[in-house]
Write a structure and sequence with these properties.
70% helix, single chain, 303 residues
């Protein structure tokens, strides 16, 4: 006759007398924590997206619907008249051309100068290097408003007031310190041994940099480009100081003029203009999103 099997005693925790929590209970608690974080993330996302939704929703509503005390959350019987009024305004397209020209100049100039400066402070040791890095940090701490008078006098002396080149110049100077600091981190994160290995295989120093290191810096260049684009596209105060001619207004200044054009602001037209101004930003992000993702592995060694 076989002996009767006796049940195994419960495993005890290091604390005497308390059983160890089962793995199922731990997984259940982990799932509960993830659900709570997921709900919190959804709530925060809704709070972040709602102002954008309300802007787009209001752009399709006539003024009499916007002025009612009962809000309209869905433009079921909306209208496109607000968008037509904006698109039929010649000053909107003039301001669009000014903003696009300024952004294009700022992106090209800022990325070139910031990339060269970041490369110099990360790859080379020269006299005054630490002082240059410290100067970048100090300039970044200076409030932009404190430089308005000197910047205006400088541009006025160079006959660059109300000129696209003048506004692009001050924008480039404003975003360069942070852009240099951002790209410096990306350049420093790429080991110089990669270039040295390419040089051992017969590449020149320049060829090794552009064929090995430069593709690995693509995410940093895209991130710096996104920062520069947003700063130049949405900036208002510097443009207000430099562009005093109504024919040379950027889009934020045009939007301000749209608000102040009448005593009773037509908020439907204002929201339609704001929606149209946001479209280039969305298109730019959709374009650089794939570039940023592909740049992460563009310099990988192929087996």
């Amino acid at each position: 006759m076989s002996a009767l099997a006796t049940p195994a005693p419960p495993t005890l925790d290091p604390v005497p007398g308390r059983p160890v929590r089962s793995s199922e209970a731990g997984r259940a608690q982990s799932r509960g924590g993830r659900r709570a974080l997921g709900v919190l993330a959804v709530v925060l996302s809704i709070a972040w997206v709602f102002p954008i939704y309300w802007m787009i929703n209001s752009a399709f509503l006539p003024l009499n619907r916007l002025q009612t005390p009962i809000p309209t959350f869905f433009p079921v019987e909306g209208t496109l008249s607000n968008f037509r009024r904006v698109l039929d305004d010649p000053s909107f397209w003039a301001s669009m051309r000014v903003s696009l020209a300024v952004v294009a100049i700022v992106l090209v100039a800022a990325l070139i100068f910031a990339f060269l400066a970041a490369l110099a402070v990360s790859r080379f040791r020269f006299r005054g290097r630490k002082g240059f890095i410290l100067t970048i940090l100090v300039v970044q701490m200076i409030p932009a408003e404190g430089l308005f008078i000197s910047q205006y006098q400088m541009l006025d002396g160079w006959n660059l007031v109300n000129k696209i080149a003048g506004l692009a110049l001050v924008y480039t100077a404003a975003i360069l310190p942070f852009t240099i600091w951002m790209l410096r981190g990306f350049v420093a994160g790429v080991p110089i041994e990669l270039e040295e290995a390419g040089m051992v295989d017969g590449l020149s120093r320049t060829a090794a940099f552009f064929r090995i290191t430069f593709p690995l810096l693509a995410p940093g260049l895209v991130a710096a480009g996104v920062y520069g684009f947003l700063q130049a596209w949405n900036e208002y105060t510097l443009a207000l100081v430099v562009m005093t001619d109504p024919a040379q207004r950027t889009l934020p200044l045009w939007l301000q003029g749209l608000v102040e054009s009448n005593r009773a602001t037509d908020w439907g037209v204002v929201m339609a203009g704001s929606t149209l101004i946001a479209i280039p930003v969305i298109v730019f992000f959709l374009f650089v999103q794939n570039k940023m993702t592909s740049g992460l592995v563009a310099g990988a060694v192929k087996g």
